[in-house]
């Protein structure tokens, strides 16, 4: 594969995931990822700050989508329902990445430092959700509680989707998990 072919970022992501799966995260170098993708290390660092970011690089777009959906939700919508709508909006983004998401989660599950990184990213997501809810008028404590509940719904639904679902079912799992949370809190 020549270096000028398109989709360098996607090629680097796939090469990294293949190598992390084959050899392990710690045993894989940036040079090996770049070589597998048919690119240079310099190109790798144009797209990613380090080899961990290959697994977490889409976080900013995800946060932007979720926050934008919450902020744009009708004023009459409750904070938890605004978060639910935002989580359901994530479904189509991941529809074509079901297999990739499963492989990614397996790599993260096998590496404690990546698990820690994922928790940091989820904490940042919760903070962004809470901020969006405060902008909608929620109190600070209500915003924080709802944001944490939203992240829990996201995690449970995402895991179910990876383990049980088909590529187009993530939004459904998000809605079902939120409904389960609401039922538990009423009971």
Compact overview of the structure:
With 187 residues, this protein is mainly α. It folds into two domains: 8-54, Homeodomain-like (Arc Repressor Mutant, subunit A, Orthogonal Bundle), CATH 1.10.10; 58-186, Tetracycline Repressor, domain 2 (Orthogonal Bundle), CATH 1.10.357. 76% of the residues lie in helices and 0% in strands.
Description:
It is built from ten helices and no strands. With 187 residues, the chain is mainly alpha-helical. The chain folds into two domains: 47 residues, Homeodomain-like (Arc Repressor Mutant, subunit A); 129 residues, Tetracycline Repressor, domain 2 (Orthogonal Bundle). The termini are far apart.
What key attributes describe this structure?
single chain; 187 residues; Arc Repressor Mutant, subunit A; Tetracycline Repressor, domain 2; 10 helices; elongated
What is the CATH homologous superfamily assignment of the largest domain? Tetracycline Repressor, domain 2
Examine the secondary-structure arrangement and name the CATH architecture of the largest domain.
Answer: Orthogonal Bundle
Shape: elongated
Distinct helical segment count: 10
Strand content: under 5%
Helical fraction equals over 70%
Order of helices and strands: HHHHHHHHHH
- Main sheet: strands, sense, barrel: none
